[in-house]
UniProtKB/TrEMBL annotation, chain B:
This is Unannotated protein. One of its GO terms (molecular function) is lipid binding. It comes from freshwater metagenome. It is a multi-pass membrane protein. It holds the Pfam family ATP-synt_C. One of its GO terms (biological process) is proton motive force-driven ATP synthesis.
C-alpha cells in the first residue's frame, strides 16, 4: 500500500528504510493502563496550549505604558493579528473575533514549531484529526455568524443564490457554492495544515536519517557525500520554521476571510 | 512497510500533481514582484495577497503528495 524506494540497493546490508507513514504513529507512554491513549504528540499539544496560555496571561499582567521586552513581544504578536488580519480583513465589527483569531494563530504556530524543537521534533498537527477539529471550530464560527444574521434558510439562500446573476447560472452555481461552504472550506483548511506538516516532517526525517545512514555506512562514497545530506537537513530546518509560522498565518487569514464573507451576506 | 518493494506509482502521482501548482506559484509571485517593482509602497498591501494565493495553490500539490503516500 505504501510506496517505498530502496536507495543504493546494491549494498548487501538491509539497506536504508525510508521514512513513511509509520513514523507518525507513536506508542503509548503508559501501555496497559487506563490512560493508554497518552502519547508524545498528545503531551506536546497540551504543552503548546499551556505555553500559549502562559505567554499571553503573563505578558498582559503588567500593563506598563512603556513596555518591557516580554510585554513588547506579546503586544507585537497580538497587534500583528489584530491589525494585519482582523481589522484589515473583517473591517467593521472585528473586535469580537480578535481573541479567537489570536488564539488560533498562536496555538497553531507553537504546535507547528514543535516540529523543529529538539526533544519534541514532531509537528503535532501532522495527524489529520487535530487540524480537523480546529477547522471545525472555524467552520462553526462562520456558519454561526451567517445563520445568526440571516436565519438558517436565509443564509443558505444568500450563499447559493447571490443576487445579480442571470437565472440560468443558478443551477450550476448553487450546488458548488453549497459544497464549498459546507464541505470544501473546513476540509481544505485542515488538509492544508496537515499536508504541509506531514511533508515537512517527512523531508526532515529523510535528510537526517539518510545523512546518518550514509555517515555510518562502510561505503566510502556514501561517507563522503553524507555532509551534503546533513547540510540539507540544516537548511530544511530553517525553511520549515518559516513554513510553519506561514501556515499558522494562512489558517488565521482564511478564517478571517470566511468570517468577513459570512458577515457581509446580509447586503 | 516492506523496504524491498519498489513502485513508481506514488512518486509519479506527485510528479504529475506538482506541475500545475508550480506554474501557478510562479505566476502569483511574478505578479507580486512586478507589482512591488512598479510601486514599492504597495509591498505591505500585496504581501498578504501573495501569501494567501500561495497557500491556496500549494494545497493542490499537497493533496497530490497525500495521495502519493496512500
Amino acid at each position: 500500500m505504501s510506496s517505498t524506494i530502496v536507495a543504493m540497493a546494491h549494498t548487501a546490508d538491509p539497506g536504508f528504510v525510508p521514512p513513511g507513514i509509520g513514523d507518525f504513529k507513536y506508542p503509548p507512554i503508559f501501555p496497559g493502563t487506563a490512560v493508554e491513549w497518552v502519547t508524545k504528540p498528545l503531551l506536546a499539544s497540551v504543552l503548546a496550549a499551556v505555553l500559549v496560555f502562559v505567554f499571553f496571561t503573563v505578558g498582559a499582567r503588567k500593563r506598563a505604558l512603556v513596555p518591557g521586552r516580554f510585554q513588547f513581544a506579546v503586544e507585537s504578536t497580538y497587534t500583528f493579528i489584530r491589525n494585519g488580519v482582523a481589522r484589515d480583513v473583517i473591517g467593521h465589527g472585528f473586535e469580537k473575533y480578535v481573541p479567537f483569531l489570536v488564539t488560533v494563530f498562536a496555538f497553531i504556530a507553537v504546535n507547528n514549531l514543535f516540529g523543529i524543537i529538539p526533544l519534541i521534533q514532531f509537528p503535532t498537527l501532522a495527524r489529520f484529526g487535530f487540524p480537523l477539529m480546529l477547522a471545525i471550530c472555524s467552520w462553526l464560527v462562520y456558519l454561526g455568524i451567517g445563520i445568526r444574521r440571516a436565519g438558517f434558510f436565509g443564509y443558505f439562500k444568500s450563499v447559493m443564490f447571490p443576487p445579480g446573476l442571470p437565472v440560468f447560472i443558478y443551477p450550476l452555481l448553487a450546488p458548488i457554492e453549497l459544497l464549498q461552504v459546507l464541505v470544501v472550506r473546513p476540509f481544505s483548511l485542515a488538509l492544508r495544515l496537515t499536508a504541509n506538516m506531514f511533508a515537512g516532517h517527512i523531508l526532515l526525517l529523510l535528510f537526517t536519517l539518510g545523512g546518518t545512514y550514509m555517515l555510518t555506512n562502510e561505503n566510502l562514497v556514501l561517507k563522503v557525500l553524507a555532509p551534503f545530506s546533513l547540510a540539507g537537513a540544516i537548511g530544511l530546518t530553517s525553511f520549515e520554521a518559516f513554513i510553519e509560522v506561514l501556515q499558522a498565518y494562512i489558517f488565521t487569514l482564511l478564517t478571517a476571510l470566511y468570517i468577513a464573507e459570512a458577515m457581509s451576506e446580509e447586503h | 512497510m516492506d523496504p524491498q518493494k519498489f513502485t513508481l506509482a506514488g512518486p509519479l502521482v506527485y510528479a504529475i500533481a506538482a506541475v500545475g501548482p508550480g506554474i501557478g506559484i510562479g505566476l502569483i509571485f511574478a505578479a507580486y514582484v512586478s507589482g512591488v517593482a512598479r510601486q514599492p509602497e504597495a509591498n505591505n498591501i500585496l504581501r498578504p495577497i501573495a501569501f494567501l494565493g500561495f497557500a491556496l495553490v500549494e494545497i493542490l500539490a499537497l493533496i497530490g503528495l497525500v495521495f502519493a503516500f496512500l
